[in-house]
Amino acid sequence: MRTVVFDLDGTLADTSGDLIAAANACFQAMGMGDQLDPLADAGTALRGGRAMLTLGMERLGRGGDTVEIDRYYPVLLEAYAGAIDVHTKLYPGAMDAVEVLRGQGYGVAICTNKPERLARLLMTRLGVLDSFAALTGADTLPVRKPDPEHLFETVRRAGGDPARCLLVGDTVTDRETARAAGVPSVLVTFGPNGTGVADLEPEATIGHFDELEGVVRRLIG
Questions:
Q1: Is residue 85 annotated as part of the catalytic site, yes or no?
Q2: Could you give the number of structural domains in the chain?
Q3: What is the C-alpha separation between 90 and 98, in angstroms, rounded?
Q4: Which reactions appear under catalytic activity for this entry (predicted)?
């Protein structure tokens, strides 16, 4: 079966606001106040918790304090889990595109570097988890993106053929994953990283999910 695999953060949903809030909760706990801006630092948020903590610590002149970053990473995860869907929104047309693909006989799945527990919690809160045949996170397997096995196993769990898939994402990690797997990548231009994704030379870019079905048909039939 042909399978379309989606990244989550910055691709299906803009999760940056809730991620930034969780990171700032850590800096507040340190007695330092908010260090990250929900708009200006959205791109960093979509690179994960450690990236946000590192940026904030750099602004405090403590960028090399890996002990403190490691100490607060679990705190960040718990803060995020407690308020995971306050600001998060699915991108316009995302689930319409998923349902169109399902109706055309494609498998659909999620391959994210967010911890699986949090990814499942978020998609459940958003009411869309059951639309995906499989979901794998950063800790589901011994490897994670950009290792191609993360993508391949996601496809297998969705009942698909790893040789007949593509990855929809928004970052260089998604591009590198698809390249290592020898499959096409489609990068979205509407997220915080959108202005530079064309420079990554994916097989296609889309500016709205309305474009996805035609691109999928062109790339994997």
A1: no
A2: 2
A3: 12
A4: 2-phosphoglycolate + H2O = glycolate + phosphate
Token pair of 211, please? 């474009």
Domain span at 50:
16-82
The predicted model scores a pTM of: 0.94
| CB within 8 Å of 153: residues ≥ 6 apart | 136, 140, 141
Three-state SS sequence of the chain:
CCEEEECCECCCEECHHHHHHHHHHHHHHCCCCCCCCCCCCHHHHCCCHHHHHHHHHHHCCCCCCHHHHHHHHHHHHHHHHHCCCCCCEECCCHHHHHHHHHHCCCEEEEECCCCHHHHHHHHHHCCCHHHCCEEECCCCCCCCCCCHHHHHHHHHHCCCCHHHEEEEECCHHHHHHHHHHCCCEEEECCCCCHHHHHHHCCCEEECCHHHHHHHHHHHHC
- As beta bridge partners, residue 165 has 3
pLDDT tens digits along 161-202: 999 999 999 999 999 999 999 999 999 999 887 778 999 999
Q: For residues 130 and 188, state if they share a domain.
A: yes
Out of 7, 14, 41, 174, which one is annotated catalytic? 7
Tens-place pLDDT, residues 103-137: 999 999 999 999 999 999 999 999 999 999 999 99
Same structural domain, 162 and 107: yes
